[in-house]
Amino acid sequence: MNRTCDPQRTLHAGFRPSTLIATATMLALTAGGAAAQHTDKEATKDMGKLLTLELQEAPDFAKVPPPDARRMYVYDPAAFTSLTRIIPIDGNTGAYLGTLDTGLLSLPMPSPKDGTLYVADTRFSLYGNGKRDDYIGIYDPVGLAPPTKLIDIPDTRSGAMSHIGGSSISADGKYLYSYQYSPSNAVVVVDLESQKTLSTIEVPQCWYVYPAGERRFASHCRDGSFVLVKFDEQGKEVSRSQTKPVHDPVKEPSFNSPAYDYKTQEIVLVSFWGHVVHIDFSQEEPKIGESWSMLTDEQRKESWAPGGWQPAAYHSASKRLFVLMDRRDKWAHTTESREVWVYDMESKKRIQTIALVHEATCLAVDKADKPYIYALSSHGKTLDIYDVESGKHMFNQGQLGHEPRLLVRNP
After folding, report:
1. Among 265, 264, 269, which residue's Cα sits nearest to residue 225?
2. Three-state secondary structure call for residue 252
3. Cα–Cα separations (whole angstroms), residue 159 to 105, 122, 181, 352, 362
4. What pTM was estimated for this model as a whole?
5. Quick check: 116 and 130 in contact, CB under 8 A?
6. CATH 2.130.10.10 placement within the chain
7. Distance between CA 26 and CA 165 in Å, rounded?
8. What pLDDT score was predicted for residue 216?
């Protein structure tokens, strides 16, 4: 087990004069004899050089490697506190790259175009109260400094615990979609090129938002269907359509954080009871696959089921689905899991089982040709990284905030 820690910010500060004077005084008091006097003279000579050094008052901020296919972002909502954090991780080494300070229930989303990090955020003028301000913060993924730009959005951003789909970016990197819940279900459309909010489009009784083609987004609705809304360059709605229900939300409720690929625009819904539905939004007419079961009758009798806060991940290049699994009671679907089951989406068969070093709440898989698995424990505050092909445990990072609850990969 390797534990790595590479602080993003390094501060080089000069010596305090008071400390140097005290040290010089002690040297003078302890000096004695010819040899001691000689040593003392040399020490005093060196100390004099230190006393004349120019103090460096300004911090020196280190830069981190540019985000690649193995860059991962851990988000810590800190159990609904108003001051939270985003922690970038380099999956190549398991390194902790730094910390970005954010507000209430923020949602980090890297651009599929260039990796620029956009964060849907909420802050208050008096820490946890006062005047509210919702905005999109733009962060440099290399400098990891405070946001370079703030884009104002309506102060109605969803206040639910952070989920994949609460904020998303179109495949071409031009539009950001921010899900709103007040006064009604809606999606705010932001033009990232002009860096301004274009419109708010209502999606009654539908939740979260996923890119679904050019200037179009999808939202998952109460009856198990998806609504698809197309808009023009000014953000005005031009058409709307509805799919058939893709699952029964009562008999087969699905997890709020589905597996989604922002570049291929494929979504994989996993239900509490272990059924899977694949939907491809990249074409004008969405392609909806048939529902299939991850579990055999014997596995169901043994009470195996998916579980966690973010329990599934999809690697589109290899057509593999990764799911957190454990033996659990019927309504224990948000508890942590001890295994990852890997499925081939074409054959719909389990092809691999990986036993986890630590139980995990959230799961992600990076976009590398030979991908790694990222398993995050909210309770243990630890991230473990595994090689997919061998199942080998590669890296571990601990002490990740207060209660980390989301993994967001670089597209």
Report:
1. 269
2. coil
3. 7, 9, 8, 37, 20
4. 0.85
5. no
6. 63-409
7. 63
8. 98
Query: Which pair of tokens denotes residue 10?
Result: 């390094």
The span from the CA of 255 to the CA of 269, in Å, is 7
* CATH match for 63-409 among 2.130.10.10, 2.60.120.10, 1.10.10.10, 3.30.70.20: 2.130.10.10
How many residues would you count in the chain?
Answer: 411
**How far is Cα 316 from Cα 346, in angstroms, rounded to an integer?**
11
For the segment 96-119, what is each residue's pLDDT rounded down to a tens digit? 999 999 999 999 999 999 999 999
Distance CA 304, CA 298 (A): 9
* Phi, psi (deg, nearest 5) at residue 213: 105, -175
In Å, how far are 154, 223, 227, 289, 357 from 129, measured between CA atoms?
18, 36, 35, 46, 40
* Nearest Cα residue to 312 out of 369, 254, 398: 254
**C-alpha closest to that of 164 among 237, 114, 121, 109:** 109
Beta bridge partners of 17: none
Distance CA 106, CA 160 (A): 10
- Alpha-helix residue ranges (DSSP H) falling in 344-392: none
What is the predicted pLDDT for the residue at 330?
87
Within 8 A by CB and 6+ apart from 58, the residues are none
Rg (CA), the chain: 26
337 DSSP β-pair partners: 360
Q: Which two tokens stand for residue 317?
A: 């290049």
374 neighbors 365 (Cβ within 8 angstroms)? yes
